[in-house]
Write the structure tokens for this entry.
Amino acid sequence: MTSPIQPGSSADNHQISEDVANAAERRWAIIVILIILSLLAMMIFTGLHWAAMPPSRVESVDVRTLHIKGEFVESNLGTTVEKDGRVVVRLIAQQYSFSPQCIVVPAGTQVTFRGTSTDAIHGFVIGRTNANTMLVPGFVSTFTTSFPKTGEQLMPCHEYCGIGHEAMWAHVQVISPEEFFAKAKASERLNCVPR
Amino acid sequence: MFHARKLVLAHFWVAFVAFFVAILLGEWQMYIRSPLHAWVNNPEHYYRSVTAHGTVMGYVLPTLVAMGFGYAITEITLKRPLIGLRWAWAGFWLVIVGTLMAAATTAAGKSSVLYTFYPPMIASPFYYLGIVLVVVGSWIWVALMSINLRAWKKANAGETVPLAMYGNVAGAYLWAWTSVGAASEILVLILPASLGLTDTINAGLARVLFSWTLHAIVYFWLVPAYIVFYTIFPKAIGGRLYSDTMGRIAFALFLVFSMPIGIHHLFADPQVGSGFKFVHAAMTAMVSIPTFLTVFTIVASAEVVGRLRGGTGPFGWVKSLPWSNPMMLAVTYAFIMLGFGGAGGLINMSYQLNETIHNTQWVTGHFHLIFAGAIVIMYFMAAYEMWPQLKNSAPLSAGLIRAQLTLWFVGMMVLTMPWHLVGLLGAPRRMAYYDYTNPALHPQAITVTMSTFGGLLLVISAALFIYVLATARTQSAPVAPYSFSKAVHPHTKTPASLNSLGLWVAMMIALTVVNYGYPIAQLAATPNASVPIIPIGER
Ligand SMILES: [Cu+2]
């Protein structure tokens, strides 16, 4: 809006200034659309390139038989090294605790979490990492992440699940891969819940 | 105004009194979870308080403001008496009865399911029926807005619908369609369980249905604020609107893009596949377009004023703007909060970045900046602008209004910035208390204290707002009829597609069906998805 408008008939002036206004508006609309497209391109690129993806597949599970049979029976919860070498953590949430209450994982290694809820909707986030998921009864949540540093992290339930919600915190112990795999050889399933 | 005066006043008063009670509850929540107070001895009280705060702020306040403001806009812009005044009162009373029902059940501890419901937790049927009445009451308003516009168009064939009315009716249609999601969740899934007709519920499906409402409702809250930006702000600072067409495009785009995006709230949920998550993320990016366009048009409208007042150079016009004008101040505060909140929103909607902050205190910070910040400050301005019309009062005190707005802005920043910070550190939201003796949480204690003080400023600001409205003095001389801002180039021929909403409503419905049809059908057919319900307040 810098070019001065020469005096002329007022209808002319009106037309000229309107054209200027419309052109400025159109330029801005194009810029906005380019911004949005580049954001989308970034999402697609990081999604494909780093395989950074939110939990993806829809897998249901029967809550009524969860404790009795299948993957989520109590003896099968905790961290394990599968036959194919993958590190898998299985856990369940119920009002108002996680099982297991303390989870052991190796640092710098891909870890797959598989979790579900037996009652209300729960969720968890682990410390400052982006291990963050919802646990919806009837469905299995799966995601894979890795923990760069060793140390102990808090794992609160982050979804309101009833009046005991604020007391629902678990712990995650991130240990060195050497220590982890040595322990994993000794016992089939790992957790750090004191006995 | 013709005969809707009492009606509009009733809506505004109930909205703002409820708002004031809810803000006291909000501040109480911040206080008892801060280190300033010992642990609350019954966390149930905390969740009752959250349920009441959220229900009022999310449903009652914005619905009543949109309704009341909508009736005022109808009479002012169409320059004729409102058709269906009795129906409008019936809608108002439905909202009141619904609110009281929900409030009573919440106070009795029978509905601590928070305002997003959380099945399989199931509250007393009176809570849900109360919400249903609020929604049904607001649907009467939707119908009246449509009927009034139709009647006016019939009598004024070929004329351009005033921009304020265009946005108002767009907001009404948006609300009608987005409320269908939560309404069907309640009517089909929750109420049968609440009434004891069934003892299981499909929690995953319920969350998807709620997400249909959960994001678009924000744009319903936002429409009155945008009406103030486009049709009140330019005139209030002594200028004109830069572009009427851009206003129409913004309202039409909100209608189209705000619906098919709700699944971005479910990025971390297991019951929706990654394909639809991505589609909704892309659509969420699109819905920022109308806001970008609005920021340009409104800043350009201000620039015109700044230059007319003698400002020169690339930034000189900013200095010559009428800064003592409350409207100038309010829109500036709103844009700053919209800027921070919008930047946070881009992170929330990002398919990948969201994982870091999902369900942490960050999210609370984000939506308080957008809704309680940018939007509610414009609700204040809508009330201040309408008040002399409604009460036949002298102009309200600009000094008090400036103080009130500034307190609100500062309070909101002090409240939300610490929330963003601890959210990044992984602090979960919706906690009745934190154990600050835990070494990992101890450093976060100070941020909660800061937010408590931010909340205190907001309480003072809200009290001042009520005071200014309550002390407006009726004057004997009649107040000049209200008029909305004119455009700089008012004679532009408005294209037919931007003078009606049919095309945009059709696109809104079509996009929703494409983006929600499959996930809903898939979930309804998923085996094992129905899980036992958990009754609230019965043990
Ligand atoms: Cu929980």
